[in-house]
Amino acid sequence: MSHGEHACEFRFYAELNDFVRPRQDGLAFQYRFGGTPAVKDAIEALGVPHTEVDLILVNGTSVAFGHRLRDGDRVAVYPVFESMDIAGLTRLRPSPLRDPCFICDVHLGKLSRRLRLLGFDVAYSNTADDAGIVAQALGERRIILTQDRGILKMRVVEHGYLVRSDKVMVQVQEVLDRFDLCGLARPFSRCVRCNALLEAVAKRDVEHALPPRTRQHYQNFHRCSGCGALYWRGAHTVALEAWLSRISCLPASHPGRLKPSCGEKEDLR
Fold first, then answer.
1. How wide is the angle at C-alpha 251 spanned by C-alphas 99 and 111, nearest 5°?
2. How far apart are the first and last CA of the chain?
3. Which CATH superfamily is domain 5-79 in?
4. Alpha-carbon dihedral of residues 64, 70, 72, 74, nearest 10 degrees?
5. Could you tell me if 43 and 78 are in contact, meaning their C-beta atoms sit under 8 angstroms apart?
6. Most CB within 10 Å of its CB: which of 7, 38, 52, 243?
7. How far is CA 113 from CA 110, 121, 122, 153, 185, in A?
8. Sorting pLDDT into bands at 50, 70 and 90, what band is 59?
9. Cα 206 to Cα 215: distance, rounded to the nearest angstrom
10. Is 210 in a helix, a strand, or coil?
11. CA 195 to CA 227: how far, in whole Å?
């Protein structure tokens, strides 16, 4: 170790090891540094976005992100806890979002539609840049869902999650598990196109917009309060029901099965 260089011991727990290269799987390893860097800077230099961290112990004492490292420190870094009470320690996340809403980056359009299908408030634009996503997330207190860890390393970002999988079904389960959302799901209550809530509407008020067979066979309709799209319980319900049944933490049945009036086929993989 050269003159002026220091070293401390780091250990990352649980899924935080997904970010560390080479992967450590919870084992302690040495980290070399110069000066007195903030522990947040060291954690992110090792590849872990600060939004993934909820508790840091240095020599057995909980510390904030701004804590300065010293030679010989022992650092333990834990992920966000949804079920463990750590109220007496220095919890690093701002107050939890118990009425969560999200914003997806441009690569997660399918995920945004699936989460809307489950009733969650999810903002999405396929033209949004990083600065716009962060500004909207801060302004509307949204959790950023992204596959770009660079966004999550921005100092101003408070809530975010790096989506690991490239398969939308796995992505949905990731988000539900990560934020403990299954009890908050309200399937078929939100428009998958524009994210606004659905409202019941009398058939007589929408008959003029219905295809002839739909007008003949269906009686109950909902309309999007934003874009005006019509929804009803249709043949596509079977595919949607099957997709929902694959989500492990949701109950077996849900009220209000609806079908988009546009007749678009969703890729539910």
1. 55
2. 51
3. Beta-grasp domain (3.10.20.30)
4. 10
5. no
6. 52
7. 5, 10, 8, 26, 14
8. very high
9. 9
10. coil
11. 9
Residue 173, pLDDT score: 93
In degrees, to the nearest 5, what angle opens at C-alpha 197 toward C-alphas 126 and 159? 55
* Residue 88: band (very low, low, confident or very high) from pLDDT cuts 50, 70, 90: low
Q: Is the pLDDT of residue 90 over 80?
A: no
Helices (H), the chain: 39-45, 109-117, 130-140, 149-152, 168-178, 203-206, 212-217, 237-245
Residue with tokens 């007589």: 204
Residue count (the chain): 269
> CA 65, CA 82: separation in Å to the nearest integer?
20
Cα distance between residue 151 and residue 83, in whole Å: 26
Q: Please tell me the distance from the alpha carbon of residue 173 to that of residue 197, in angstroms, as a whole number.
A: 22
| Cα distance between residue 261 and residue 54, in whole Å | 43
Report the chain's mean pLDDT, rounded to a whole number.
86
Q: For residues 262 and 229, is the Cβ–Cβ distance under 8 A?
A: yes
Contact 38, 67 (CB under 8 A): yes
The domain segmentation of the chain, as residue ranges, is 5-79, 101-184, 198-260
Separation between Cα atoms, residue 200 and residue 221, nearest integer Å? 6
Residue showing tokens 């914003």 = 103
